[in-house]
């Protein structure tokens, strides 16, 4: 009988710094780490997508497409580059017309992002159709991710219906995207088991965040229940609001008797470089003095004993024993390793790591950091009143901004952003549950609602005309595509590139 196997996927250079460092790592900083990750045996790394395109243009002065070109040059053909795509929203914040989705993913896949993780913040399968077909058209791998959350309407049937729809639409694999670290190990068992029973041969990846102290134990449950891949980050780029540590999950896999794809011999070099980068980006680091100690080459006997005890408790599938396993992994394994204590209040707020990092910086810049506790209390209220939307980009920003506005103005829904209004009225997709009627009334006094596929409301774009209107500033299809998604930052970036006064 073949040995059990689990593949680790590295997210340090995408989700890691998006969750911990407000997405501020530059291309050059990434390239200091990438060769070591390559040589560690990773066959799949998440390196692009999410907020990295916008932040590259806006903050680090990097061309996102040139970034992926350089990554591909370093990695060669033996490693898949995974990008995170927001479905019909692509890498931006609103739905785009089908032609733009098609053209952007054509360029992305041809540039080397050969695995595209497609998700929709509302889990509306209609928002994934065009992106899935576009990635596959150019021989990319389309991985459909369900945005995991908890609410009265997010039951097992909800997620299985999503899986049915995206597989029917051509998804090559599935992912459970637990962006706020809400997936309890007991629920992870149930969800993975249900997917495995219905789709025994589909490739399945588990993605979570350590925000609420559940992720490492949920990964144990996921491995036992039959996931193929787990998303991790290395050393200083792991934990807190990022993914579980690759080093720790390698220890767990070995104790479970699983083969893995990676070799930890280069982990100290990766750790050292990531530690240096976090020091360089201290101004945007929420935990500048507490990002874990270097992991040992092998688990100590005491650490091994603790992990074995936690595994046995998880294997029991008894909820009370699983709670004990969570405590062991969080307090006795991760605690002494130097990671900051978990803020369990986020179990109610359900705020993803990247959103916490960016919201913290925004309030700090405005001198309103003292209002963060009230905003975090307001977020779950706004979420419930808007139909229990999962909090992941762009809905996390939409809900977070409206919650901040409710708190900072002192009047709930006295001012409503256009994005929140459009979301509540269905312009971005079907809401998981019914929104509060009073909130709907405030958003649409005349009762107007949007019921068609969001891509149908997006205004068609003549890319040739757009390039001509910019007077030669857009010199390639790549430039035009970036401009369509991020007009302001792209224009400034290209003006600097051409030596034009900004």
Quick summary:
With 502 residues, this protein is α/β, with parallel strands linked by helices. It has helices at residues 12-20, 27-39, 52-60, 64-75, 98-111, 129-137, 156-168, 185-198, 215-225, 246-256, 267-280, 301-316, 319-334, 346-349, 353-365, 372-385, 395-409, 418-424, 437-443, 454-457, 463-469, 477-485, 487-497, and strands spanning 7-10, 44-49, 80-85, 115-119, 141-147, 173-178, 203-208, 229-232.
Written description of the protein model:
The chain is of the alpha/beta class and 502 residues long. It has 23 helices and 8 strands. The chain has helices spanning 12-20, 27-39, 52-60, 64-75, 98-111, 129-137, 156-168, 185-198, 215-225, 246-256, 267-280, 301-316, 319-334, 346-349, 353-365, 372-385, 395-409, 418-424, 437-443, 454-457, 463-469, 477-485, 487-497, and strands spanning 7-10, 44-49, 80-85, 115-119, 141-147, 173-178, 203-208, 229-232. The protein has an 8-stranded parallel beta sheet. The radius of gyration is 22 Å and the shape is globular. The model has no long low-confidence stretch (mean pLDDT 94).
């Amino acid at each position: 009988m073949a040995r059990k196997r689990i593949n680790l996927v590295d997210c340090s250079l995408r989700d890691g710094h998006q969750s911990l460092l407000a997405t501020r790592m530059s291309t050059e900083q990434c390239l200091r780490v990438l060769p070591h990750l390559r040589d560690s045996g990773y066959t799949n790394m998440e390196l692009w997508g999410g907020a990295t395109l916008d932040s590259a243009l806006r903050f680090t002065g990097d061309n996102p497409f040139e970034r992926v070109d350089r990554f591909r040059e370093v990695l060669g053909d033996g490693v898949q580059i995974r990008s995170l795509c927001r479905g019909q929203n692509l890498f931006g914040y609103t739905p785009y017309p089908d032609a733009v989705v098609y053209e952007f993913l054509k360029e992305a896949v041809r540039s080397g992002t050969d695995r595209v993780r497609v998700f929709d913040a509302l889990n509306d399968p209609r928002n994934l159709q065009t992106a899935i077909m576009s990635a596959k058209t150019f021989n990319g791998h389309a991985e459909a991710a369900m945005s995991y959350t908890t609410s009265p309407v997010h039951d097992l049937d909800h997620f299985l219906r999503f899986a049915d729809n995206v597989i029917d639409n051509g998804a090559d694999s599935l992912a459970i995207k637990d962006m706020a670290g809400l997936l309890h190990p007991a629920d992870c068992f149930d969800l993975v088991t249900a997917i495995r029973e219905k789709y025994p041969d589909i490739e399945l990846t588990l993605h979570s965040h350590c925000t609420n102290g559940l992720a490492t134990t949920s990964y144990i449950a996921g491995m036992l229940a039959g996931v193929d891949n787990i998303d991790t980050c290395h050393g200083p780029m792991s934990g807190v609001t990022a993914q579980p540590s690759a080093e720790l999950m390698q220890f767990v896999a070995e104790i479970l008797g699983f083969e893995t794809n990676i070799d930890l011999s280069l982990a100290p070099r990766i750790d050292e470089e990531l530690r240096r980068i976090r020091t360089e980006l201290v101004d945007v680091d929420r935990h500048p003095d507490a990002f874990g100690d270097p992991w040992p080459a092998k688990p100590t006997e005491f650490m091994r004993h603790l992990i074995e005890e936690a595994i046995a408790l998880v294997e029991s599938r008894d909820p009370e024993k699983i709670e004990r396993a969570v405590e062991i992994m969080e307090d006795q394994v991760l605690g002494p390793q130097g990671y900051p204590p978990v803020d369990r209040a986020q179990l109610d707020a359900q705020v993803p790591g990247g959103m916490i990092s960016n919201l913290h910086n925004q309030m700090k810049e405005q001198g309103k950091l003292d209002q963060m506790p009230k905003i975090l209390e307001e977020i779950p209220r706004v979420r419930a009143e808007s139909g229990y939307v999962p909090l992941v980009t762009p809905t996390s920003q939409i809900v977070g901004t409206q919650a901040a506005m409710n708190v900072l103005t002192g009047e709930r829904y006295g001012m409503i952003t256009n994005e929140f209004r459009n979301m509540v009225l269905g312009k971005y997709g079907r809401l998981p549950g019914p929104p509060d009627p009073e909130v709907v009334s405030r958003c649409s006094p005349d009762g107007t609602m949007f019921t068609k596929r969001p891509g149908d409301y997006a205004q068609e774009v003549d890319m040739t005309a757009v390039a001509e209107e910019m007077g030669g500033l857009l010199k390639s299809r790549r430039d035009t595509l970036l401009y369509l998604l991020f007009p302001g930052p792209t224009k400034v970036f290209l003006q600097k590139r051409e030596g034009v006064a900004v």
